[in-house]
Amino acid sequence: GAVVSQHPSRVICKSGTSVKIECRSLDFQATTMFWYRQFPKKSLMLMATSNEGSKATYEQGVEKDKFLINHASLTLSTLTVTSAHPEDSSFYICSARDSRRGTGQFFGPGTRLTVL
Amino acid sequence: GEDVEQSLFLSVREGDSSVINCTYTDSSSTYLYWYKQEPGAGLQLLTYIFSNMDMKQDQRLTVLLNKKDKHLSLRIADTQTGDSAIYFCAESIDTGGFKTIFGAGTRLFVKA
Known about the structure:
The complex is a heterodimer. Chain A contains no helices and 11 strands. By secondary structure, chain A is an all-beta fold. In chain A, strand 5 (44-51) and strand 6 form a beta hairpin. Chain A is globular, with a radius of gyration of 13 Å.
């Protein structure tokens, strides 16, 4: 149980394009999903938290117009990096939990984004 | 404040046991996790333990939790070269908002 998947696992895009990353909870309902970014040789940095059906809450310093988060269902959240720049290249990791049942927070495998 | 600390590096010989330690500061943790990350790859959940448990065993992995000392450990028996990776300790706390805090990661190097 507690499986979270992400798609794609790797993506390369040109500067100025937009990239969408999907995060799915496979065997539980994710009332809350989190998006993290991991810089090389660093731990995870929380970008935003979203509750199903509500707007995401962004951490300080994270541009909400650049990192669009949609959490339209209990099993799917998407992160869209708009007008990507090379400095957006990073490892993006989502996680999910069912806050109604008080489960833990389980993490997806991550998506490596490279912007050329 | 909330903090999770772990040593940055551990080196063991193949076949030996590895013990990776972690300490945390928040006593209201609900779940504690161990994740593995291989170079260039994503996070792989190895195991997790509820805060009301003392021990959890899963094949070669043994997790010990000492709530009094706020200490979590991961023991890998018969360590193999394929176990070389970074191991992240993390705790989830739920006090007025749920969040998970990660340690900086312990890099395990297994010598053949």
